[in-house]
Amino acid sequence: MGTNTIRRLALDGVLMALFLVLGMVRVRAGFVEIGFGTIVITLAALALSPIDALLIGGIGEFISQVFFSGYGLTPTTPLWVLPVALRGLFLGLIALIYKRKGDTITKHIVPCFLSIMGVALFISGLDTGILYLDGLIMNYPVSYTAAQTIIRFATSQLNAIICGILVIPLYKAVMFMLPNEEIKSGGKETEEE
Asked: Which of 44, 49, 80, 104 could hold 53 in an S-S bridge, CB 3.0 to 4.6 Å?
């Protein structure tokens, strides 16, 4: 295992821990709830790679669901992990398109925001479907899903806007701190020595 791989795994671990901490920070106003864990997934997707963001989101959300959600490990836990992991993967793939051209999506404000908001919209639809399946599997009223749908979509867009506003300056700071061009580019590692 090369130095870059070790650095990358360490960075993923730090971001996963940050995801867990920020995932517990929520602002609530009535039925509306804004969480901050999404910022870490988005940042990982834009700054690192789709795989890093997928792993940080997937493993981080699994730990969160099992240990911090109050539900523990249930038959539907993998379903709840899926949207968080896919958010990182999809945003990472969009960012990768720009990286392959030698550019970054954060330099293009409108496409960056549209990407974050579009993925958030898709994830909200997926979450709503999972909530419905969870109701069927865990045997609670499915009508709850219908009542939550509008709130879920509106909240996800508000969360996406806040995330976009915060991620762009954070992206610049993270890219400044990354140790070398190999980790920044998300490219294949070369053996050192």
From this structure: 44
Q: State pTM to two decimals.
A: 0.83
Q: Could you tell me the two tokens for 1?
A: 């295992």
The answer to whether 1 and 190 are in contact (CB under 8 A) is no
Contact 19, 63 (CB under 8 A): no
CB 146 within 8 A of CB 135: no
Cβ-proximal residues to 133 (8 Å cutoff; 6+ apart), any chain:
76, 79
CA 32 from centroid of its chain's CA atoms: 19
Closest by CA position to 183, among listed 63, 26, 52, 62: 52
Please give the Cα distance from 108 to 174 (Å, whole number): 18
Measured CA to CA in angstroms, residue 60 lies from 27, 54, 79, 152, 189 at distances of 20, 10, 14, 21, 24
H-type alpha helices, the chain: 3-23, 37-47, 50-63, 77-100, 109-138, 143-177, 181-185
Q: CA 142, CA 72: separation in Å to the nearest integer? A: 21
Q: How far apart are CA 117 and CA 142, in angstroms?
A: 27
Cα separation of 120 and 111, whole Å? 14
